[in-house]
Amino acid sequence: MKAIKFLGAFAIIGVLFAFTVSKSDNVVNGYKVGDVATDFSLKNIDGKRVSLKDFKDAKGYIVVFTCNHCPYAKAYEDRIVALDKKYKKQGYPVIAINPNNPEKLKDDSFENMQVRAKEKGFTFPYLLDEGQKIYPQYGATKTPHVYVLQKTAKGNVVKYIGAIDDNYEDEAAVTKKYVEDAVNSLLKGKEVSVKETKAIGCSIKA
Amino acid sequence: MKKMLLAGFAAIFLLYSCNEKKEKEGEEEVKETTEAVTEEKMPTPMHVYTKDSVTVNAYKYDGLEYFLTKSNDTTYVVNFWATWCVPCVEELPYFEQLNEKYKNDKVKVLLVSLDMHKSVESRLIPFIKNKKLQSDVVMLRDPDADTWIRKIDTTWSGALPATIIYNKDERKFYEQSFTYSELEKELNNFIKP
After folding, report:
1. ipTM over cut 0.85
2. What is the pLDDT of residues B48-90, one digit of tens each?
3. CATH top-level class for B41-191?
4. CATH top-level class for A27-203?
5. CA-to-CA distance for A201 and B119, rounded, in angstroms?
6. Residue A1 with chain B: CB contacts under 8 Å
7. pTM of the model
8. What is the CA radius of gyration of chain B?
9. How near does any CA of chain A get to the CA of B39, in Å?
């Protein structure tokens, strides 16, 4: 009888367990729009550490999780540079973070980040998420993955999460510039209309 | 003692019936969307790539939906991948293996490539040829990802690889990489009642 009871209990645990695992391994507990995003201190390609708080005059930030190896990220490099050029002077600088573990992907090593940034003429910090501590807090799952933050009295509030625009393949065919629209709204003191979008990207390798 | 056992079984039963109900709800939804599609014939590709006797049909999401909503006695394993996606390429042999092993068990693997238009002839077709891929390969070519990612699954962030296993009764979405044994185990939940 004891054995049966034991089995019964086991079955219940088994069923409960099955339910938990079936929820998929990648349950995302990252930021939602409205949350306050953490600051960080990460190593930039020039060897110096960079934090959001270093940008005293910023009104907010365009935080882009990106990397060297991913074709989707590469497709957006020029557009990320253009975003920084346009919005840094208006108070919304781009802060790029490579979330990948370089031990898993040599292309995404610190040295290769330096090379890529030089080739593409990055005008913004390109930071390595050493130890892969920051991207999980944001809830980034892929590259490129953008978070637009607004500096407020209570901290850096997430105002937009998602894609840069609606056409990775052909910049000329873009119809919706999600990040630009979000930052433009914030600059005008308006509510961001499209707060979250989805896009294909390369999964982050931790 | 007996009471405890009874309670245990009751709990299992409750959980189980709860689950079943959810599946049935899902089933009805799927049927609604398929009926219109299955009566039509195969969707027309938006582009057909042919090189070295390999042909790949590219669809917009509206066309691809036909392959994601079939309602017959086959179980479909649909993997979203791209030649540039390292973990996708790593797990691809497992999908091939599964396709081969279960080909007489009404299981079909479909590989949906998200390679870019400009790299189909330079990368995707050579990859299909060199790896001698046996599973069907189609291409999803639709820039409006924000719309179709949500339609494929509301929980999908857009990261690759991703997989759907479905048949007329059940459907499950996975934003993850698989080992062969994990994949086979998931499939067996669909084909072994």
Report:
1. no
2. 999 999 999 999 999 999 999 999 999 999 999 999 998 999 9
3. alpha beta
4. alpha beta
5. 16
6. 1
7. 0.79
8. 19
9. 31
